[in-house]
From TrEMBL:
Keywords: Coiled coil. This is Cytochrome C. Residues 221-248 form a coiled coil. The keyword Coiled coil applies. Gene3D superfamilies: Cytochrome c/b562.
Length: 316
């Protein structure tokens, strides 16, 4: 019995020694390298501040440089976006009647799904309703000014004013606003069915300050830019989604134009107008590429993204 215990104790001691040796081996590290300062002199800066000439740049200055680059892409013109588009043929140069009609139908269907019950509306649905109505008011304003043959053109001004008024009221949820939104839902259904609006009173000219706020327009622009990127991951995907890409690109070009209309926030700011023009120009290039059957549009989509990012960094 004693011999067995002695053997077990010896074996345990042997295992313990092995474990200690293994742990010690694992803890061994190669010594840290040493360098002679003369060997690295002239290769690395002694201080990060020495790497810059003049003042060390800040994040805000780097962001502004990106925005300035986007502004420069507009060829330094100080002519307003509205004047450029009007001189080139107005809205017809930016968006086709079919794109306007299809988008009105799409947004109308989404708006229908939002206006369900007062509880859902007051619980957050009013935000979706505001965006949908802001988009629709903008689209009808463009339809009213478009030189082409666009459906609902004879009632576009009335639809613009009715829908814009409710969009502004949808900044908060309440039973009263919900009931007003339900009326707009019925109006849109009357338009879609062909029976037309019961009330066709409208202002003779478009007052863009009364049509839409900049915030929902920028939100809409972000959605369009995201859809363009997702639909054009490669040439094959772009070809499969060519109709959607062309429509969304035209809509984004239109938004860039609308953002500079008199009455909207900072529309008279030359830098802001140039950034908006940059987005319009980039989006129009995407639409033009699809029109000529070119689906390798990675660089064009990249220009759209860059123009949107440059604008959002300085303006919201």
């Amino acid at each position: 019995m004693d011999s067995r215990l002695l053997c077990l104790a010896s074996f345990g001691l042997f295992v313990t020694v092995l474990n200690c040796d293994g742990a010690a081996a694992q803890e061994r590290r190669a010594p840290a390298p040493t360098f002679n300062q003369r060997d690295t002199q002239g290769i690395f800066f002694d201080s990060l501040d020495d790497a810059f000439r003049g003042e060390r740049p800040s994040l805000s200055k780097i962001q502004k440089a990106g925005a300035d680059k986007a502004v420069a892409a507009t060829n330094g013109s100080t002519e307003s976006t509205s004047e450029k588009a009007d001189a080139a043929g107005g809205w017809a140069k930016l968006i086709a009647p079919e794109s306007l009609e299809d988008e009105i139908k799409r947004v109308k269907l989404h708006f229908d799904s939002v206006i369900t019950t007062p509880g859902a509306f007051n619980g957050g649905g009013f935000q979706d309703a505001r965006l949908d109505l802001s988009i629709l008011a903008t689209l009808f304003a463009v339809v009213n000014e478009h030189p082409g043959d666009v459906r609902w053109k004879d009632q576009a001004a009335a639809a613009r004013d009715l829908i814009a008024r409710t969009a502004f009221n949808c900044k908060a949820g309440s039973s009263q606003v919900f009931n007003e939104a339900k009326m707009r839902k019925a109006d849109l259904q009357d338009l879609a069915s062909g029976s037309g609006l019961a009330n066709r009173d409208a202002e003779p000219e478009t007052d863009w300050s009364m049509v839409v706020d900049r915030s929902p327009l920028m939100q809409y622009a972000e959605q369009l830019a995201g859809k363009l990127k997702a639909a054009s991951r490669d040439a094959k995907t772009a070809e499969e989604n060519n109709e959607q890409i062309q429509r969304d690109a035209q809509l984004l070009a239109m938004i860039g134009q609308v953002l500079t209309r008199e009455g909207l926030d900072e529309a008279d700011d030359e830098d802001y107008a140039a950034l908006s023009l940059s987005m319009t120009k980039a989006a129009s290039a995407v639409a033009a590429a699809i029109e000529r059957g070119s689906y390798d549009i990675g660089s064009e989509i990249g220009a759209v993204t860059q123009s949107c990012d440059a604008c959002h960094e300085q303006y919201r």
